[in-house]
From TrEMBL:
<keyword id="KW-0675">Receptor</keyword>
<feature type="transmembrane region" description="Helical">
    <location>
        <begin position="121"/>
        <end position="137"/>
    </location>
</feature>
<dbReference type="GO" id="GO:0004983">
    <property type="term" value="F:neuropeptide Y receptor activity"/>
</dbReference>
<comment type="similarity">
    <text>Belongs to the G-protein coupled receptor 1 family.</text>
</comment>
<keyword id="KW-0297">G-protein coupled receptor</keyword>
<dbReference type="InterPro" id="IPR017452">
    <property type="entry name" value="GPCR_Rhodpsn_7TM"/>
</dbReference>
<keyword id="KW-0472">Membrane</keyword>
<feature type="compositionally biased region" description="Basic and acidic residues">
    <location>
        <begin position="380"/>
        <end position="390"/>
    </location>
</feature>
<feature type="domain" description="G-protein coupled receptors family 1 profile">
    <location>
        <begin position="60"/>
        <end position="314"/>
    </location>
</feature>
<keyword id="KW-1133">Transmembrane helix</keyword>
<feature type="transmembrane region" description="Helical">
    <location>
        <begin position="158"/>
        <end position="182"/>
    </location>
</feature>
<dbReference type="InterPro" id="IPR000611">
    <property type="entry name" value="NPY_rcpt"/>
</dbReference>
<dbReference type="GO" id="GO:0005886">
    <property type="term" value="C:plasma membrane"/>
</dbReference>
<feature type="transmembrane region" description="Helical">
    <location>
        <begin position="204"/>
        <end position="232"/>
    </location>
</feature>
<feature type="compositionally biased region" description="Basic residues">
    <location>
        <begin position="391"/>
        <end position="400"/>
    </location>
</feature>
<feature type="transmembrane region" description="Helical">
    <location>
        <begin position="81"/>
        <end position="101"/>
    </location>
</feature>
<feature type="transmembrane region" description="Helical">
    <location>
        <begin position="43"/>
        <end position="69"/>
    </location>
</feature>
């Protein structure tokens, strides 16, 4: 008699090799082609591959949420959207990442009827909430830089948009809860239980979801950051062409950011698209190819890896977040702790202490999604500017 304790049948084998006829008089143990056991070392390797992603994702996204809770000055509109994306990514790691090990390893769906309904719903909801936040961040930066005189969002409006992203994500994910159910089949020596679904309807549903998850954000990012690059080129000609030798610095930075975003998306979503499209659009009577089993697990793991990488791209690479991390998590930055020196004349000079310090507006251009309306060089003090600008009139810029 077989039990489900260590039955390690890949779930997709059932899809193509077992039909829904009456098997109550047959022994499941006699059908060795259905009983595929994963070696213990393969399961261990998969756990070891997923564990660093979970640790990095939990720590990174929790760090962003803690910073937003503890430092009020960080609660700008753009940072609220980044915080919302961090929450969605954290929920993806906590609620979804570990299930791939269970589904990949066990013969039966052991998570129960309720989680059979909620598994796909959670996956799609959290992924879409993260993607919607990413789209809003790109749009907010576009409006702040290309249309600096347009009306800016208030914090209240930003929170309304955050709620709307979650409502929209849950509405889009609801079919996965409706079209999935727990199904059982009684063999003579074994009860087979799996999470079944309406493959015909989900085929077109997943096509729509892939468009929302991959192609819409890629298109929005490409359009938004291309417009930002063109606008920055215009600003640089106005501000720096005659005054500053580093006139190409910020445009190159934006190009690198755009390239990083696009490369990140392609790397993490291409394999998942191949798996989903092949599974739902192959001929119904055709068996799944051998390569499907090999790429099934890494395709899903890569989507979780993006939830772990997003805090690095949108948090650790953001100067204001880096400063906030140093303030919030002082124990992790002891080596960079500033200690008083024996040169008090420079540090404690009243003139020096009262002198305001400034950052170039472009320095904060990707931190709060805003840009000033083409200030003159008399109104902006650059950190890299030669000493001859030290006597120019300056004004304070809003640093996130």
């Amino acid at each position: 008699m077989f039990t489900s304790d260590m039955a390690l049948l890949m779930p997709f084998v059932r899809e193509t090799q077992v039909s829904d006829f009456n098997v109550s008089d047959l022994d499941f143990s006699n059908h060795t082609n259905l009983w595929i056991r994963l070696p213990a070392h393969e399961i261990a390797l998969k756990v070891l591959a997923l564990l660093p992603i979970m640790v990095l994702g939990i720590f990174g996204n929790v760090a962003i949420l803690v910073v937003m809770l503890r430092i009020k000055g960080m609660r700008t509109c753009t940072n609220i959207f980044i915080c919302n994306m961090a929450l969605a990514d954290l929920m993806t790691i906590l609620c979804c990442s570990w299930t791939i090990i269970v589904v990949d390893a066990y013969q039966n769906f052991i998570l129960g009827k309720i989680y059979c309904k909620l598994d796909g719903f959670f996956h799609v909801t959290f992924l879409l909430a993260s993607v919607f936040s990413l789209i809003i961040i790109s749009g907010d930066r576009l409006l702040g830089i290309v249309f600096p005189f347009s009306r800016r969002l208030s914090r209240g409006q930003a929170w309304i948009i955050v709620v709307a992203t979650w409502v929209a994500a849950m509405m889009c994910a609801s079919p996965t809860a409706i079209w999935r159910w727990l199904q059982a089949r009684e063999w003579h020596d074994y009860e087979e239980v799996w999470c079944n679904e309406n493959g015909f309807l989900l085929k077109y549903y997943w096509l729509m979801i892939l468009i929302l998850l991959v192609y819409v954000p890629l298109t929005v990012m490409a359009v938004a950051y291309t417009a930002i690059i063109l606008q920055l080129d215009k600003y640089e000609h106005q501000l720096f062409l005659r005054e500053h030798p580093l006139k190409m610095k910020y445009r190159k930075k934006v190009i690198k950011v755009l390239f990083m975003y696009v490369l990140n998306y392609l790397a993490f979503w291409v394999l998942f698209q191949v798996v989903v499209l092949y599974r739902y659009f192959k001929p119904p009577q055709q068996e799944l190819a051998p390569w499907y089993r090999k790429v099934y697990f890494p395709a899903h793991v890569l989507t979780y890896a993006q939830s772990a990488i997003n805090p690095i791209i949108y948090g650790a690479c953001n100067e204001s977040f880096r400063k906030a991390f140093r303030i919030t998590f002082r124990c992790l930055f002891k080596k960079n702790k500033i200690r008083p020196t024996a040169a008090p004349n420079y540090v404690h000079s009243p003139q020096r202490a009262n002198r305001p310090t400034f950052n170039c507006v472009n320095k904060n251009i990707f931190q709060n999604g805003q840009v000033a309306a083409a200030p003159s060089t008399q109104e902006t003090e650059l950190k890299d500017m030669p000493d001859k600008t030290s006597n120019r009139k300056t004004r304070t810029s809003n640093v996130t």
